[in-house]
Amino acid sequence: MSQATSELPTWDLDSIFPGFASEKFRSTWSQAASQLQDLQDFIRTHCGSEGAADRGTFEALIARLNAFGETFGPLYAYVLMRVDADSSDALAQAKLSELELLYLEYQKLRPRLQRWLARLDAEAVQAGDYRILIEEAKVLSQHMMSEAEEVLASELSLSGGRAWVKLHGNLTSQIGAVLNGEELPISAVRNLAMHPDEAVRKAAYEAELAAWKANEIALSAALNGYKGEVSTLNRKRGWEDDLAPALFENRISRRTLDALQQVMVQSFPHWRRYFASKARALGKERLDWWDLFAPVGLPGQSPKKWSWEEGRRFIVEHLSGFSPAAADLAQRAYAERWMDAPPRKGKVGGAYCTPVGQGRSRILLNHEDSFESLSTLAHELGHAYHNYCLREVPYLLRQEPMTLAETASIMNETVVGEAALRVLPPADQLGVLEGGLQSAAQVIVDIHSRFLFEQAVFARRRERELSADEFCQLMLEAQQATYGEALASYHPYMWAVKGHYYGANFYNFPYAFGLLFGLALYRRYQEEGQGFVARYEALLASVGKYPAEQLAARFGFDLESEEFWQGGMEVLLERIARFQALLGQV
To answer: Which of 137, 441, 531, 534 has CB atoms 3.0–4.6 Å from 117's, for a disulfide?
Structure first.
C-alpha cells in the first residue's frame, strides 16, 4: 500500500449503535421483533384468501411494513458493517446469524402477502405511489410455489444459499497472498494492479492467482451451491429462464436489456483500440491482464499521488459547482466519519455505501492514493447523496432496483472526473482520463464477460455441478469473447473474486445500465445547466416508484431504443479519442 493507513479514517459506528451491549441496540432489536410480531398477526388475520381487499386494510398493512423496515434497516446495516469491517469478530458474526433468523420470519410472510396484494385493484384502494407494489405482486403471484413450499424455501435458505454467500464473504476476507515472502491481505495485493512497475503488477497477479487456486475447492463449492439452489427455485416457480427474475427485480424489460447489450457489443472494437493504445504507451505489443489498471503517463511523468485531504478538497469543491446539496452532503460525510478507508486483513474487498436511516450513510472503501480511488469515493458519495434525497420517502418506496441505484454515483463520478480534465495539467489529465477509461472498460467490456459467464454457468449447472477448472474455463471463454485479441493473458479466477456471483444473480448488466443512463443524464445537464438539477433530484427521489422504462419516459428517454444507449456510449468513445490524442497516437 502506497498510502499510510494511519492517514485514512475509519468509520464511526457508535453514533448508530454504541455496541451490541448498549441499551439503544437492545431496545431497537426488541422494537423490530415487536413490530414483526404485530405484522405477522395482522397478515394472518386480514390478508388470507378470505381477507377483505379494501383500502383500510391496505393502508394499515403499508403502515406496518414501513415501520418494520425503518427499524430493521439500520439494525441490519450496523451488524453487517461490523462483520464486513472484521470478519473475525465472532460476536458480530453471531449477531448477524440471529438477525437473519429474525428476518427469516419476515420473509416467511411474503407468499401470503404477495398473493393478497395481487387481489387488489390499485384504483379501488387508492394506492397512489404504492401502485407498483400491487402491479409487481400480480406478476410474482404467478411465479410462486405453494405457501408451504415458499416458507420451507425461506427456512432452508439460511443453511443453503445464504450459507454459501457467507462462506464466500468470510473466506475471501481472510485470504492472504504471499508476495516477496510477505503475506498481504488479498485486497492489498489486488490494489497493486495499479502499481507503475510492471514487475510488481505481474508478481501481484501471480500471487493472487496462487491464492485463489489454494482456495478453489471451497469457493467452487460455494458457487455450485448458490447457483444450484437459485436455478432449482427458478424452475419450480415457473420462470422462463434464470435471467427472467433478474430482469423483473431490476424493473426492466428484455427489450431494454437487448438494446443495451447490442450497443455494448458494437462498441468492443473501440475498446480494443483503447487497449492497443494503452499497450503502445506501456511499450508492449498487447496488454496482459496485470496491465489493465496500470497507470499511463507522458514520458518522464509519474502518476500524481492524491492524499486523503487533497482528495476531500477536490471532491467537495467540484461537487459544489454541480449541486451545493451534494457537496454539503459530502462535507458532512467527511466531518461525521462516514467512511472506513484503509485496506486490512479481515475486511471485505471493494467498496460500497449503505443507508443507516434518516438520510445518513456509511461507506466502506479499500483506499489508495490514486485518482481511481478518489473517483471511487466520489462514486460512493453519490450513493450517499441518493440516500439523502430519499430521506423523506417511505421505506417501501426507497427500494430502488439496481439498474437505477447507480444514477447518482455515476453523476458524482462524472462531475469530479470532468472537473479534473478541466483543471489539471495535461500530464495529470492523461492519468485521470485513463483511469476513467479503465473503470468504464470494466463496466462495458468486463461486465459483459461476467454476464456471458453467468449465463453459461446457469446453463451447465442445471445439468450437474462444475469443477473449479470448469469455472476457470468458462471464465476464460467469456473474457476472450469480449476482450478478444486485445489481451495476451486473462484472469481465470475472476469467478472467485467477485462476490456478486454468490449473493445475487446477473449482478452485472445493471452496472452497464447505470453507467450509460448516468452519462445520458449528465449530457442532459450539460445541455440544460443548473435548471436540470432540481429535476435530477426529483428523479432520484422517485426511483422506487416506477419501472425503469416509465421513469425514463418522464424525462423523454426510450430505454428500449438502441439510439438512447448509443448517446451514452458516445461520451465514452469521445474519451477514447481524447486519450489517443493526449498520447499523440491519433
So the answer is: 137
Residue 6 has pLDDT above 70, yes or no: no
Nearest to 550 by CA among 252, 263, 258: 252
pTM for the full model?
0.85
What sign has the CA pseudo-torsion 81, 86, 91, 94?
A: positive
The closest of 421, 436, 437, 295 to 369, measured between CA atoms, is 295
What would the grid cell of residue 491 be?
484472469
CA 11 to each of CA 1, 77, 329, 336, 534: distance values in angstroms, whole numbers, following the listed order = 20, 13, 16, 8, 31
Assign 3-class secondary structure to 33-79. Answer: HHHHHHHHHHHHHHCCCCCCCCHHHHHHHHHHHHHHHHHHHHHHHHH
Inter-residue contact 479 to 449 (CB < 8 Å)? yes
Alpha-carbon distance of 583 to 586, in angstroms, equals 8
Task: Give the model's pLDDT for residue 520.
Answer: 86
Least trusted range by pLDDT, from 44-48, 136-140, 249-253 = 44-48
Lowest model confidence (mean pLDDT) among 70-74, 133-137, 366-370:
366-370
How far apart are alpha carbons 440 and 447 in whole angstroms? 10
Please report where in the chains the cell 468470510 appears, as a residue.
Answer: 170
From CA 166, how far away is CA 164, in angstroms rounded?
A: 5
Classify the C-alpha dihedral 134-139-142-147 as positive or negative: negative
Instruction: Please tell me the distance from the alpha carbon of residue 522 to that of residue 291, in angstroms, as a whole number.
Output: 30
Query: Per-residue pLDDT tens for 209-228?
Result: 999 999 999 999 999 999 99
Angle at 187 between CA 181 and CA 191, to 5 degrees: 85
